[in-house]
Amino acid sequence: MKKEIPYKIYLEEQEMPRQWYNVRADMKKKPAPILDPRTLKPITLDELSGIFCRELAKQELDDTTAYIDIPHDIRSFYKMYRPSPLTRAYCLEKKLDTPAHIYYKFEGNNTSGSHKLNSAIAQAYYAKAQGLKGVTTETGAGQWGTALSMACAYLELDCQVYMVKCSYEQKPFRREVMRTYGAKVTPSPSMETEVGRKINQEFPGTTGSLGCAISEAVEAALGQEGYRYVLGSVLNQVLLHQSIIGLETKAALDKYGIKADMIIGCAGGGSNLGGLISPFAGQMVRGEADYEIIAVEPASCPSLTRGVYAYDYCDTGKVCPLSKMYTLGSGFIPSASHAGGLRYHGMSSTVSELYDQGYLTARSVDQTQVFEAAAMFAKVEGILPAPESSHAIRVAIDEAIRCRETGQEKNIVFGLTGTGYFDMVAYQRFNDGNMTDYVPTDEELKKSFASLPKTE
Amino acid sequence: MKKEIPYKIYLEEQEMPRQWYNVRADMKKKPAPILDPRTLKPITLDELSGIFCRELAKQELDDTTAYIDIPHDIRSFYKMYRPSPLTRAYCLEKKLDTPAHIYYKFEGNNTSGSHKLNSAIAQAYYAKAQGLKGVTTETGAGQWGTALSMACAYLELDCQVYMVKCSYEQKPFRREVMRTYGAKVTPSPSMETEVGRKINQEFPGTTGSLGCAISEAVEAALGQEGYRYVLGSVLNQVLLHQSIIGLETKAALDKYGIKADMIIGCAGGGSNLGGLISPFAGQMVRGEADYEIIAVEPASCPSLTRGVYAYDYCDTGKVCPLSKMYTLGSGFIPSASHAGGLRYHGMSSTVSELYDQGYLTARSVDQTQVFEAAAMFAKVEGILPAPESSHAIRVAIDEAIRCRETGQEKNIVFGLTGTGYFDMVAYQRFNDGNMTDYVPTDEELKKSFASLPKTE
What we know:
- 2 copies of one chain form a homodimer.
- The first copy, chain A, has helices spanning 45-48, 54-61, 72-81, 90-96, 117-129, 143-155, 165-170, 172-180, 194-202, 210-223, 236-255, 271-285, 303-306, 349-356, 367-381, 387-406, 424-431, 442-449, and strands at residues 8-9, 19-21, 67-69, 86-88, 101-106, 134-139, 158-164, 184-188, 227-229, 262-266, 292-298, 308-313, 322-327, 361-365, 411-416.
- By secondary structure, chain A is α/β, with parallel strands linked by helices.
- The first copy, chain A, folds into 2 domains: 19-70 and 116-229, Rossmann fold (3-Layer(aba) Sandwich); 83-113 and 236-449, 3-Layer(aba) Sandwich (Rossmann fold), CATH 3.40.50.
- In chain A, the strands form 4 sheets. Chain A has a 7-stranded mixed beta sheet, with helices on both faces. A 4-stranded parallel beta sheet of chain A has the order 8-7-6-9, with helices on both faces.
- In chain A, helix 5 crosses helix 6.
- The first copy, chain A, is globular, with a radius of gyration of 21 Å.
- Chains A and B meet through helix 3, helix 6, helix 8, helix 15 and helix 17 of A and helix 3, helix 6, helix 8, helix 15 and helix 17 of B.
């Protein structure tokens, strides 16, 4: 007999995953190795341990171990805000008059407002375990910086965040959340690093860029004894930590005997999508099950749908290792009209490889459509979603409407990565009818592809 | 054998309360009746039904029915964001090195960011059920306005919010959240009401006040066919709806065989405190159990600890019914240095009467102490609390430290009413070391008491 499905499926504490899952271990063809930016040769563990702390460098390179124990202290931290609920969107289904069953895994119920915290605590933990004093990072809108500040405060680790200057000035709320958690937040470009001083001198009055902030954070880490640089997306280690999302989702579905037909996630650097789909993609590569997996990206930053699959720099500053991935070129910058996140030029190498092998499809959507879906979702499901997450909502709604037309009772699962409480400037633009769409021309992309490095 | 207590206790959906609890029904001496502001005589159901919709007016006056069924549609809405977790603050206990067990009922995991939604959906539901077109209300910082907007969006009811002009301009995020939910948000004083036009004419350039916004909202409701005015705190009906907090808390404690020794809540108008303590106070008035209940208020707005117990106006505009309550006088305005909410001059008549009968004690705390507690809590428990909620955190921490000194293993339960994501201006003041404390002098209070009406 089937159990009645509640609005929210919570796992019991003892049902929470005790291991992360590394989908690369089960892939027959593995993602290509990352390259040292100086030599363009596969990077070694020792080389990588100069940038990341040792255990994280190991995780970054390990493509053979399928399950990795989650340390006790990280599980304790997870228990403060996890398990996150898998919610049956009964009200949305009713509104859409669809026979489909819609579920969403909601990662926004923590102060960082998104899934980023899942990897922040892991990265901070390994830094602490190695006896480091602190970590440095960059942040744009501030989501990742907030998550890292929270994790560092919990572990009493020093946290230095280089925040893109225009965000630092225009988003004082995020900045103050980080400061409340004890982080040192520096507007970038600053006068504290060589690269910052240089940029300030060359471009007086500049309001900064993510690329510049990364360069400053890396310089700050390398220049201080006992510090390492950490990064919140794209990396293999981040996907590993984020697998907690997919593992919990799968456990919750299994608990009620629900078989997902379709799994939808928004895709920027790929950390959320990769984490959500990991255990499902794992079943697929092992030949145990089949799902329709859809990555949703902004039409204004279409790395999967219009990018090329090639080695590229992960950062505009070209200081981080190179990765083979679907990319628009590290010099690509989305149009100024682009409102939400998901503005990364490339895509996690694991997600890229799974996509290249045909385990998932990709779709790009216009931002006005995305905000329409967001506003509808907010009204019927009561959660104001992040613009990023709303890309997944858009496609989930489209698919549910298709089910209404075909009469199919599909189980649609999507990732609701976070809340939009700090994105009200974009919502205001939408509410005022001032939001526009932008799609880069082929010419623009061609120009951007020209920045790709020659690796062969 | 005792079950191990998880970090978060969630009720199963079928364990959620199906009735609200009305503590007045069990009180031997009832709270005094509310009075018509024109006649200063007890108000009748018919009179009250002109301001509130019929069912809510009934609930307002009913002091004999102990349990009232929660309509199915409201329970459905509750299921989208409830049950809220009762969290064991393991990390805070460890940090404080206390033998006490600390639990908090967290009401912030919804887009309104607080418990206000519990009553907003109920008030909107009864308005809809009566066939009304819409509701009007006022909002200061925007918490209540957001909650009401969400409830009205869900029920497709028109929602008109008069927002104090300085908040409207300085807090555009809250305003945009409301607009996203389809509410019409008008800066108050506006040119749309008679009272608004009059105030604008008398005080050109005024940035408004809550009293003025209430008057505009009431005028707007009375002037439109099919509209009623709604209010988010103080009222008996609000306490009734908020009893869901206490009922869930009690059910979660009972599930694990935990007996609370101490229950702590912040107190502004009393809606959260009253809701949290209702079932526990009910046991006390029935002589079934004993608890130490503590109301915590700001030293800068000390209605319970320094107010008088008398009939007073609920609003500065003197258009709402009068209530017998602990009050500082309806003309009382906290010092400009006061940062958090809890700035209401009076206290729910039910909470006031329970306090007068000795079922709870009250404590006032300085805001710098409150923000110190908030920052510590954020760092160890991972949730950035609302300044209001942090009043309860302060006293919970103080009591847990006392337990460390005495060695007592008390079970301390407090209400964490919401998150502080929209209160970062106050946090910034604290982070920068610019926060000051203020305690009104006896002279100031004496002056304020002079505004009390003569009712006998």
